[in-house]
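ok trying this again, last paste got cut off
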Amino acid sequence: MHLSKKVNFYNMFFLELNPLVKPDFGLVIWMTVTFLIILFVLGKYAWKPILKAIHDREGNIADSIATAGKVRLEMAQLKNDNEALLAQAREERAVMLKEAKETKDRIITQAKEEANVVKAKMIADAQVSINNQKMAAMVDLKNQVGNLVIEVSEKVLRRELSNKADQEIFIRQLADNSKLN
């Protein structure tokens, strides 16, 4: 019972007192006329600009999507180009390093060969110098020995041939020996 009193109060307050909940025929006609006028005014003045703005916005969105697709393709192409350039740069770097290593090895080989040539020339010059000094020493030694022999012989002969008769006999023997030779 208590619930039925609440429902009656609700029905009575909102349904009977509020004209919008229970409109009359005149109100419905005026609302329809007002709606049609607003619809006509909006259609005449606002609908076309709104539709144009919507179409423009759709076009802008479509253009943006197309541009984004083109940019994505261009970015992919640029990325591929960059990767190709990096690969080419790596190859060029490898070639340059290889050439530098070959040049280094060639320079080292040339330096070794030149050093060997210089070493061989220095050794040959040293051997020639040693041989020349050896020959000079031998000649000097022979000269000294010869001089020494002459001095000793001269001293021995002077002692032995101190008299004149012995000298004449020795001279005849030398003359006879030289005729035989």
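PB: full thing came through this time. Helices lie at 2-17, 25-160, 164-180.
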